[in-house]
Each structure stands twice: as structure tokens, then as C-alpha cells.
Amino acid sequence: MAKKRVVTTTLNGNQTEFLCEPRQTLLEVLRDNLDLTGTKEGCSNGNCGACTVILNGRPVDSCLVLAVEAEGATLRTIEGVATAAGLDPIQKAFLEGAALQCGICTPGFIMQSEWFLSQNPKPTEDEIRFNLAGNLCRCTGYDKIVRSVQDAATTWQDHYMKNCHEKGCH
Amino acid sequence: MATANKYKVIGTRPVRHDGVDKVTGRARYGADTKIQGMLYSAMLRSPHAHAKIKRLDTSKAEKLPGVRAVVTAKDLPDPGTRIAQLGEGAVCMAHLTRNVLAREKVLYKGHAIAAVAADNIHIAEEAVKLIEIEYEPLPVLLDVREAMKPSAIVLNDDVRCEEVGAGTTGSTPTNVAKHFHFEKGNVADGFAKAKVVVEREFVTGTVHQGYIEPHAATATWNPDGRVTIWCCTQGSFTVRQQCSELLGVPLGHIKVVPTEIGGGFGGKISVYLEPVAAALSKKSGKPVKLVMDRAAVLEATGPTPASYMKVKIGVDGDGKITAGTAYMAFDAGAFPGSPIGMAAMCAFACYDVPNGSVDGYDVCVNKPRTNAYRAPGATNGAFAVESVIDEICEKLKLDPLEFRAKNAAKEGTRRVDGPVFPRIGMWETVDYLKKSEHYSTPLPKPKFGGKVGRGVASGFWFNCGLKSAAFATVNTDGSVSLSLGTTDIGGSRASIAMQLAETLGLTATDINPNVVDTDAVGYNDVTGGSRVTFATGIAAYEAGEDIKRQMVQRAAVLWDVDPSQVSYDVATASLIGPGKNITFKALAEQVNHCGGPVIGRGFSSEANQGGSFGTHCVDVEVDPDTGKTQILRYTISQDVGTAVHPSYVEGQLQGGVVQGIGWALNEEYWYDDKGVMRNASYLDYRIPTIYDVPMIDTILVEVPDPEHPFGVRGVGEVPIVPPPAAVANAIANAVGVRMEKLPMSPPNLLKEILAGK
Ligand code: FES
Ligand code: FES
């Protein structure tokens, strides 16, 4: 077993250090070492998107990233999306639009959608579908997910253009 | 539709109670369980699809530092030949225990053989590689028709063919575990009256439920012999029962704590990991967590059967069905128990078939033991029957919806397998679809330069009742806490809470629904059979009625009058007495001082559902050069009884349709001749992505089920039944090729297109 490493990150706005083995994925460390189980594991090989987190302003499948690669990185997980002030607009839209059934895919969809809206606050349906195609949902048939992202986009355009900068989406 | 006005809460769209936890990542699913001092574990799985286990030696694995326990089948008691009644039917324990951990033989690739618990998952995985095992490979059987031949090697030498109906059982070992035969009228006479008779053969591949959450179980075996199991299951009570049987532990010594569940669709009813985690905990003395990876989920849980079917239907000059026959052979996987019986009963259920017969066979092959998948068995049958009907409509130049309206099963129609339908909405689903904007609009122009076509198909699923129980306690602020024992797989907490709110005249947010463990509520059957909103809804309604009675008594104590002088007014949620009234909330504040806490209880035991029907319409565009089919537009019309929470009802319909589209166009296990699944990942077992499908339009037809106080019908399963047939019919309409094989993937379809040229 290789020696453990100390990794320093900014995780959901806080400086966070953790100890990990070089073979551990970021997903494993988030879930098992740091107890941040909101990031889900559906396949552990980059095919389902349930493990999506934002790493240095870009969405990644955390099952495909080694934890040691996060040294010095800014990380954002589902646990960092809602604040003391309440839910994020995309979370609200998913709730009100019934965009989840079992909910296991939801954290991944929310991370990907929030990032996507920060890049493209006025997307077409086709653009939404194209940009969420790496996230699998087996329950909803996707209809209400698309509509909820559309709702979030029309209702909260300003939010995504302004706030996402501050939250480190970019 | 009427519902919205008839009720105060039912028919509205409140935010679900468990929603915030699920959009913030706080909800705990199966793999999120963490217990102090917990070990992680991994399993040894068979690389062979069929082999004898000659030698199994775990000593090297046991010696690896950090390994705390290794278990094999020897650590589970041998149940002998016992048949156990496990809620949903009789289960042969010899088969169940051998599926959990193989004994003499492995019967499919991925079959679990041993498990290791260690300080972390990496040590456990390393230790698995140190287990020494020797196999003697045996011939591999993958095809039902091959497995039915008398010359075929027999997988399980204890299996004899049971002739269901005749009540006889064969005397020699066989792969054919069951034969169902149903008959009605005189088939030969029926066909003699037909103007057109069409007979076709169909094959479908193995498909998986594809839930995104892999199976996970965590167990602690305490020194006093008490076991606690946390798992993502569709039925905590059936897990308790199965584990009690498999581990030889009294039922009352096992507590099952259901976590949130990330999808199931029928695949999370049977146990796989739970007894193994418990055995590892017993041996190590520590809590143990066991989680499957995606390949294990595909290779070693319970997909739905591949099938071979032959269907023949005759129709007279008036467009009325005169006779129909179906032969259906389903692969059960390694052990008997495919849903062939239900498939046989569903086959012709949409129609009034005066003369018919159905033969169904349950056949063992070297694949994982199949399990339920959303309306189990009905989709295979509908693919065959609805395709033949479409061909007949084409031959007779009949509008396929007119044909369905004319032949639709109605209240009083007797199914080929015997039962007579109560009030059902088959005809209405056709009628609504016929009047829909989609069906009355001409086909769209091709979007991608291909050929467009439209198809329709119908489907039936029983929906069951079974048992549910619920408790509800009134809090002093007038809210009501509701304890449920049916896991919430897609919004049932909300739909049940809404029924309790409706019963009491409260709002959905006044109710706090919780899914609790097996020690905290009465017995509940599984979340399956589209039964929870129906049956647990009845339990909640009964608990509400019980609360009303008690609130009446409390008000009587408060006012010092006879309870007969007090009534509960649902419209205002208040108690009315002689010249007095008090709101539910105000009385709730005082109940502890005027009679004591109010605890309502309710259950559903006898109620059964009338069944659910759907009729679908799809427009496709086929690229004749590649065989790729794109779904352009989809409309589903379904009898939903009463839509309790219309958003989640629509969601069930949309989700079922998209699973059906995946089954139609892409999904299938690719086995090589050694029985190895070559596409055991989401990359290669490709379920539909958001980019593959359009919006799914829903028409909620509400024909209330008289068996339920609010007319609720289960809605979850039947939406998957028609899509493969509807898409096949649309493809035929587009390119003139009738697909008799699923999936209708680009290579499969292109082959037929080229053959037709
Ligand atoms: S778990 Fe990372 S993509 Fe599926
Ligand atoms: S809601 Fe279950 S997988 Fe998306």
C-alpha cells in the first residue's frame, strides 16, 4: 500500500485537508473519508453522472478523478449548493417541477444544470438535453427535468449570471 | 377532469415531503449508511456461466492483514428442500440460498461464491483475489428453445415440470419448471369464423431495470443474536422474512431499516447482499457494509426474461376478434420463477377475445435468476400481440384505434385465463387518444431526412392489493405524523400523506409521513405491483377514520357530552357538538388532557385493484441507411383512476414510457457463446439519455376504481407495456418492415430493411 498523502482543497468555500491513499478516487474520499454522501455513485466508470461535482469551475465525474489530483483545487459538491438563506433556484425548480422520483440522480443533475445555466442562462430545449446527456435518470423519462431546468432559467436568469461567479461555478 | 374539483388535497401538486432532503444531498440511500467501526466488503463472483465448484479454499484470503471475515455458502444453514411462503408467493429455499451464495455449482457468470470483510474496500478486493477456486466448466445454455429440448443439460436436478391448472408434476429433471395453460371458448371454431388470420413469431432479449443506485446492505449481528440490516429495498418486511429463512434467525430478532431507495422497478425485492453482510458481521463481530458495482448489478441481480413467443389472431369481416392463441417461453435464468404466469394472463387482456388459449413456459438457462421489472412479463407479450393486431389492421385497412375501441375489454369481459373484469378504462384510453391533438395531427415531416411513421399500441397490467398497514399520531400543534412501512420509490410518501389529509380535511403539509423500520409499523408487503398509493392509501385513509373517531371521543370528554352528539366535519376540519365546535388543531392541543394521545391505525388487506390500461401513440423517424430510429413525438393515454398528485402520476407515465423506448430500441444483454455478458456497463448497456427522447405527453384518464375510497388506481407499471409494440408499429408504418425481434437497434433494423429490399 502506497503512503497516504495530505491533500488541501477549498471545498464548498472552506479550506479542507484530507488524508488519502493515492488509489482513492475523489468520489470515494468525498463519500467515505469526508462523509459527504450527497454525491452519488451509480457506476464508478464515468457513465452515469451521479457523481458530478464542480472541480475548478468545471463539472467532472468524481469517480474518474483521483483524490490526489484535487490538491489545491476549488471543489463544489451538492452539499454546498443550498445556503443558510435557503435552496438554490435550480433545487427549488426541481422540487416544484417534480423533477425527481427516487432522487438518486438528482444531486448530479443539479450540479450539472447549475453549471450549465451559469454558462448559458437562456438555453433552448435542445441545448439543455445536449448538455445533460451525461447524466442518466432511470425514473423520470427526463421530461420534468428538462422543464425544471427551463423554469430555473426563465425565472432566475439574473441569479445564474451574477451569483454563480461568487459561488465559484466558473 | 373531475378530480380537481371533487377533492381539496387530492388532485393538487404540493412539494413532496422528502424533497428537500433529496435536492440537498441529505437523503441517505443504501450505500450512504455508515456505522461506527464498520467494515467494507467485496465478493468473489464466478467467471463461468456454468461450472461445478471442485475446490474452494479461502485460507490465504483470511490471512491477509486487515481481513476480518470470509464467508461462503457453508456459513449459511442448508435449508434442505423447504418451500417458504414469502409474502408474494412460495419460494424454494434451496434455490434462494444458492442464488445468494453458490454451493455445488455456479449457474451464471457473476454468480456470488464468497465474500470478504476487511478494514477497507481495497483490502477486501485484494483478499478476494487470494481465494483459491477450481471449476469444472459445464456446457452453457442461453436460449430458451435449446433449454427446452429433452437432450439439453439440466441446470437444477431438483426441478420437475409443474403443469399449472392440470395440477400434475413431471417425474424427470428438466429445465422447464412450469407450464401454464389457459383456454376459453373454442379456438378452432373461432379461427374458422375469421376473415384474416395472422401468425407471427417474436424474440426478445434480456433487459435490466437499470436503476441508478446499485444494491447495498449494511448489517450488524449483535452478541445477543439480534440482527439489524440497513438496505435499499422495495420491501423491508420481505427482506426480514428472507433473511430469517436464509440465516436461521427468528424473524423477531431481525430489524430491517429501509434507507432511501434509488430506483427498483421490481429488481430490489429479492435479497442478494443482505444475508451475506449479516453472515460477515456475525463472523467478524463488527458492522459490515456490502455494495455492488454496476457490472455485478447487471450480471448478478434479476433482469427480466428474454423470450420466444408465437401469436396467432383471427379477425372477422366486421373487425371483431374471433380467436387468439399465444405460445410464450420465458427464460427464468438460473432458477425457476420468471413472470411467465402473469405474462400469460396479460397477453390478451386488453381485448374481448371470445375464443383463446395461452401456453406459457418457465425455462431455466445460464443467466442470472430473472426478477420482476415493471409489469413483469406484460411488455414481452404486448410486443407480440399488439404487433399482430397492427398487421391485421393494416391488412383489413382498419384504423388501429377504431379497432381497439371495437374490441376493447370492458366491465364484464372475461379474460382468456378466467377472471371477469370489474369497471375498467381500456375503452376510455383509446377514446381519449383518438380525440387527442397528436392523433388528429398528420405525421410531421422528417427532421433528419429519414422516413416517418406512426404507431399505436395498448397494454394491461393487473395492479395488486396485498397488505399494507399504517399508524398516524396527532401532534399537539394539529399536525399528524404518519408511519409507513412501504418504501417510497418515487413520491408515495406524498401521495399517501395527501390521502390522509383529504380524509381529515387537513393540508398535505399538516402530515409528516415517514418510512419506518420493521419494528415500528405493522406488516407491509413490498412496494410493487403498483399497489402502494392504492393499498397504503387505504391504510392511511383507515388510520384517518380511526383518528376521527378518537377526536370525536376527545371532544365529547371536553364538552362533557355523549360522543353520539359529536360529529367530525371534514370540510372545516373541526368537531361539531351541541351548540359548540372546535377545530382539529385546537382540539389537538388539548387531547392529552381530555382522554389521552390520539393514535390512528389502519390497514388494507382484502381490497384488490381492477387493473390498469394504457394506449400509446408514437411518431418515429427511421434512417433507412443506418437503421436508426428517432422518437419524434409520444403521447400516452392511461386510466389512472384518480390522480392523487398529478405531477407524480405524469412522472410515472413518462418514466415508464422512456424505459419502454429503451427496451424497444437499444437495451439487451449481449452474451457470447460462453455465457459472458459483453456489455455489463452503462456505456454498452445503453439506457436512454435525455438527448434520446422528446417530451412525453400524458393524458390522464380518470375512471375511479370502486375498490378505493378515492378511486385510486396504481399507475406505475402499465406505462412500460405498450412502447416496444407502439414503436415497432411506427417503424412498420415508416419503412414497411415488421420487426419481430427486440431490440430494434440500428443493426437489427438495418438487417431487416436490407432483407426487404
Ligand atoms: S459514478 Fe461516476 S459517472 Fe457514474
Ligand atoms: S429520479 Fe430516480 S434515477 Fe432519476
What is the gist of this entry?
Chain A is α+β, with helices and mostly antiparallel strands. Chain A has six helices and five strands, in the order ββαβββααααα.
Question: Can you put this structure into words, describing what you see?
Answer:
Chain A has 170 residues and is α+β, with helices and mostly antiparallel strands. Chain A has two domains: 5-80, Ubiquitin-like (UB roll), CATH 3.10.20.30; 89-167, DNA polymerase, domain 1. Chain A is 36% helix and 15% strand. In chain A, helix 2 crosses helix 5 and helix 3 crosses helix 6. The longest helix of chain A is centred in the middle third of the chain and has 14 residues, at 106-119. Chain A is globular. Chain B is α+β, with helices and mostly antiparallel strands. In chain B, helix 11 (340-346) links the parallel strand 18 (321-333) and strand 19. In chain B, helix 11 runs parallel beside helix 12 (378-396) and helix 19 (646-665) crosses helix 20 (723-735). Residues 41-44, 46-51, 61, 63 of chain A line the site of one FE2/S2 (inorganic) cluster.
- Largest beta sheet: strand ordering of chain B: 3-7-1-16-13-14-15
Q: What's the total helix number of chain B? A: 21
Q: Roughly how many Å is the radius of gyration of chain B?
A: 27 Å
What is the overall shape of chain A? globular
Rg calc of chain A: 16 Å
Structural class of chain B: alpha+beta
CATH uppermost class of the largest domain in chain A: Mainly Alpha
Query: Under the CATH scheme, which class of the largest domain in chain B?
Result: Alpha Beta
Strand content of chain B: 25-35%
What is the molecular shape of chain B? globular
